[in-house]
Amino acid sequence: MQFEILAKCGTTRARVSRMTLAHGPTMLPTFMPVATQAALKGLTSHQVESLGITLMLNNTYHLNLRPGTAILDAAGGAHEFQNWRRNLLTDSGGFQMVSLSSFSQVTEEGVLFTSPFSGEPTMLSPEESMRIQHSIGADIIMQLDDVVSSLTTGPRVEEAMWRSVRWLDRCIAAHDASGRTDRQNLFAIIQGGLDERLRSICLDEMVKRKDSIPGYAVGGLSGGEEKDIFWKIMSQCTAKLPEDRPRYSMGIGFAEDLLVCIALGIDMADCVFPTRTARFGVALTFSGPINLRLKKHSTSFTPIEETCPCPTCASQMSRAQLYHIVSHETTAAHAVTQHNIVFQARLMAGARDAIMEDRFPAYVRRFFSTYFGGPDDGYPKWTVDALRSVGIDLLEGDPGHKVILGNGAKWEYSDRL
Ligand SMILES: [Zn+2]
């Protein structure tokens, strides 16, 4: 991997960089859409590429179950299998020990899963995770970590953190022995729950292994914890991670979360939210999310967003048509998914341009003012606090906005309108 920092924000910790992998360059910060089963729901690989996406995710646990490594090996890897020519990242399968906790059991050896299809037990060890990810052949592969829900407390959090460090060493050994380190880049995952002391130990341990680690992820967040704790842990991690390595926040997808994370120094993020919410009829726009299932759109003959270059908006597909088909035609899921992926990409490209021109704070302030722009809206308090910690005052010159308490994820209440 080649990782070059091209510009740094003069105020915050945001930066623009170029990460060149085996399947070409990807400009950072970037948002990575999630193609869990080697297919982004609703779009072909060719369509995803034509939207300008240069890096997306596949899921190791799911690809190992189906189609399985024998078929992936026969195809020549997951790029070939899904006809994807750009960069690919795979998670390690570790997250499924939280999402499928009733089917899994963690030991020092690895995670024992019960197949939901056959009932057969499968051991996912660090070595096995590396073996599967080598068959998949993704440009970025993730260490197997011992993941606990961010709501877990007590000694289990410390146990999982130390085990993640030990499993990182086993992943490094297995990956180094594979002879694939020139094409596949192993990322470490910082764990330690919501405990500042444990995060600090994990950071020290994993940064020590920097020579074997081309990039770092912050894991174990975005699982329903208080946003006020989320951003403080994220900030603690980005402050300590090496400057010359890309930093990836796992499971982050709301626009406001992305901009806060970028301001704190994050380069990459992924989440199923933009594509999942599209299938439920919610389109993301710079004026906030809109729920196309609401009757008010039945007579709206304008595109989702006039200024959007996505194929859905550019072809003038109207909100009225989308309202008409949104809950029962796959066309609507396809159309809104394309739009939402382009929205995320525009948000990130706008951030990159602003950092390059050293006007990132103004970009963030303007985004928040428009996105949370309704007369009764305000900014979520945690975003105001998080951005203030890196020198952006959202309320400066914008006294009309009330700070709202709580999580304040705009799509949540927009969705209920
Ligand atoms: Zn659009």
UniProtKB/TrEMBL annotation:
GO cellular component: cytosol
Name this protein carries in UniProt: Queuine tRNA-ribosyltransferase catalytic subunit 1
Residue span, tRNA-guanine(15) transglycosylase-like domain: 12-371
Classification lineage: Eukaryota, Fungi, Dikarya, Basidiomycota, Agaricomycotina
Cofactor(s) of this protein: Zn(2+)
Residues the record lists as binding substrate: D91, S92, G93, G94, F95, D145, Q191, G220
Subcellular location field: Cytoplasm
Sequence similarity: Belongs to the queuine tRNA-ribosyltransferase family.
One GO molecular-function entry: tRNA-guanosine(34) queuine transglycosylase activity
A Pfam match: TGT
Residues that hold Zn(2+) according to the record: C308, C310, C313, H339
